Amino acid sequence: MNKQGNRSVLLGAAFLMATSAIGPGFLTQTTVFTSQLAASFGFVILMSIILDIGAQMNIWRIIAVSGKRAQDIANMVLPGLGYFLAFLIVIGGLAFNIGNVGGAGLGMNVMFGMTPEMGALISGIIAIAIFIIKEAGKAMDRFTQVAGFVMIGLTVYVAVTSQPPIGEAVVRTFVPEQINMMAIVTLVGGTVGGYITFAGGHRLLDAGIKGKEALPQVTKGAVSAIGIASIMRIVLFLAALGIVAQGLTLDPANPPASVFQLAAGNIGYKIFGIVMWAAAITSVVGAAYTSVSFIRTFSPSLEKYHRGIIIGFIALSTLVFTLIGKPVKILVLVGALNGLILPISLGVILIAAYKTKIVGDYKHPLWLTIFGAIIVVTMAIMGGMTMFTELPKLFA
After folding, report:
1. So what's the pLDDT on residue 318?
2. Residue 336's pLDDT is what?
3. Which of 86, 126, 208, 327 lies 20 to 30 A from 36 at CA?
4. CB 211 within 8 A of CB 359
5. Residue 159, SS3 per DSSP
């Protein structure tokens, strides 16, 4: 692949991962935490960016060096572990995709006044169309890039309109008035948890970018992906902070929509519709592509028909939302499971980094291993706490 093609794939992988992270949950979490923590939420964003980069660099580098997908690496570390990881990812991806399809329906509802169900149906068809195209990989890359730029551009406009206290935001990013550990863990889980961090790593493998010689590019791509997601997070934080600082109250039923509406009136509300749709539809594409990438190496038939399986995955998510709506209990349960996927998957990757049968003569930097180990322990404790608090609520 020529240098230009390589750059295009790296940018595509970065945007696929970033836009997979920027979904309906991302928009809601950011605005809710801003209303709770005000300018101190900047510190939460800073901490989560550092942890995100540590997790993503470890995972992308070992996937590239080994030339294998995460489930195959896990099976080499401990036979059967890859199947367990794939099961968690696919179940989580399917449940979240039902939520993502719902978010796309809501975006359509705001933009055109149609019912969320009809909006979801149309959005599902658009997502499926991307994988019907012969050059599906390139179509996916281009779609996520355009949608990503549109989301960030429109949110910048709303942030400027809301006139946030930028000086205070900068100060509180480094000297917070309050620190919320749960918010940090939620942001890390929402950015690199579950299937999300593997979206770009697996996309690079599909495009043939692997081996030790590709490491500088892979590292750059991993950091760029977190950078893109973080720009969106920061801009949305500033937009919400401007509203909160004015003493205005966000609508608890739809916090991100009220930020856009209070900042820019009816135009702002329509902009929210576009941003919500773009965030949701790119997450639908990313979740389907990555979830299926976790099972396609298990048999030649799955590999051969993986595009058809991706289409079926999107169709099933769309059908469930259209007929049943969002199954709240399933989403909560899988959300709690998602918090446990990162420590399992990152832990496996860190063990794999020291197995020559997986990485050959590659020497993994010690600082990255330590960084990764801290993230595994932190996320395992917090993920476990979430499981124990959420599960009793479900079965109460």
Report:
1. 95
2. 63
3. 327
4. no
5. helix
Please, what is the end-to-end C-alpha distance for the chain in angstroms?
A: 56
Task: Kindly state the DSSP code that residue 283 receives in the 8-state scheme.
Answer: H
Q: In this structure, are residues 363 and 70 in contact, taking their beta carbons and an 8 Å threshold?
A: no
Predicted pLDDT at 366: 96
Q: And the tokens for 95?
A: 């449940």
Buried b (16+ CB within 10 A) or exposed e, 208-232: ebbeeebeebbbebbbbbbebbbbb
Query: To the nearest 5 percent, what fractions of the chain are helix, strand and coil?
Result: 85, 0, 15
Inter-residue long-range contacts of 306-309, CB under 8 Å, 24+ positions, other chains counted: 307/131, 307/136
Q: What is the pLDDT of residue 146?
A: 93
| Residue 253: predicted pLDDT | 82
Question: What global pTM score does this model have?
Answer: 0.90
Amino acid at 74: A
Looking at residue 312, its pLDDT comes to 96
- CB 348 within 8 Å of CB 81: yes
Closest C-alpha among 162, 142, 181, 189 to residue 25: 189
Q: Please give the pLDDT value at position 79.
A: 95
Distance CA 4, CA 23 (A): 29
Output the CA–CA distances (angstroms, integers) from residue 265 to 236, 259, 270, in the order listed: 16, 10, 9
Q: What pLDDT does 330 receive?
A: 63
The domains found in the chain, sorted by start residue, are 3-395 (1.20.1740.10)
Name the stretches of the chain with pLDDT < 70.
1-5, 327-339, 386-387, 389-391, 393-396
Only one residue has tokens 């240098």, namely: 3
Distances (CA, A) of 119 to 122, 252, 268: 5, 23, 20
Picking from 278, 54, 33, the residue whose alpha carbon sits closest to that of residue 150 is: 278
Q: Residue 184 in 3-state DSSP?
A: helix
- Show Cβ contacts of residue 222 under 8 Å, excluding neighbours closer than 6 positions: 14, 53, 56, 57, 59, 60, 61, 200, 201
- 99, two tokens: 């939520």
